[in-house]
Amino acid sequence: MKRKDYISWEAYFMGVALLSAQRSKDNSTQVGACIVNRDRKILSVGYNGMPIGCSDDDMPWGREGEMLETKYAYVCHAELNAILNNDGGSLKGTTVYTTLFPCNECAKAIIQSGIKEVVYLEDKYKEQGSTIAAKKMFDMAGVKYRQYEPVGSEILLNL
């Protein structure tokens, strides 16, 4: 008889996004993303971090100060990294699982890449213009979005 307490596909994919977020060097916000096709195959993952070749040790991670002295001019968001980390195959019709609702810049990349659904864990910036703009573009482009509803038990990874 097969075991009955295994996790759902949704929990698995959001778990991969959460685990990916743990790779982020950002000391204030860790975000992860996981792109999945219709066959439930993971095509790519990403987390918020510096571009390849830009040393995490030499780049700013602060949130305050002049633009060029903060992370905001440099960091690639998790969703964009997941799109760019894809091995070149089509993302048309896929779903992205992300730990934080995408900003307007990531929304543009999501739409342009053909992703058709966004499943997010948190929407803590829902009142900010970047999130409002993202939702407006998703609605116009027919990209569905919904909040992930955790069900079941907690999983603890001791690595």
Describe the structure.
The chain has 159 residues and is an alpha/beta fold. 28% of the residues lie in helices and 17% in strands. Strands 2-1-3-4-5 form a five-stranded mixed beta sheet, sandwiched between helices.
Overall structural class, as computed from helix and strand content, comes to alpha/beta
Integer average pLDDT: 95
| Strand arrangement in the largest pleated sheet | 2-1-3-4-5
The low-confidence runs, each spanning 5 or more residues with pLDDT under 50, are none
Order of helices and strands: HEEHEHEHE
**Terminal-residue CA separation:** 30 Å
From the spread of the alpha carbons, the general shape counts as globular
Q: Give the biggest sheet.
A: 5 strands, mixed
Task: Tell me the strand percentage band.
Answer: 15-25%
Radius of gyration over alpha carbons? 16 Å
Count every helix, treating DSSP H or I runs of 4 or more residues as helices: 4
Can you give the helix content as a percent range? Answer: 25-40%
Number of strands: 5
Tags for this model:
single chain; 159 residues; alpha/beta; five-stranded mixed beta sheet; globular
What would a concise description of this structure say?
It is built from four helices and five strands. It has helices at residues 9-21, 78-85, 104-113, 129-141; strands at residues 32-36, 42-47, 95-100, 117-122, 144-147.
SSE topology sketch:
Elements: H1 9-21, E1 32-36, E2 42-47, H2 78-85, E3 95-100, H3 104-113, E4 117-122, H4 129-141, E5 144-147
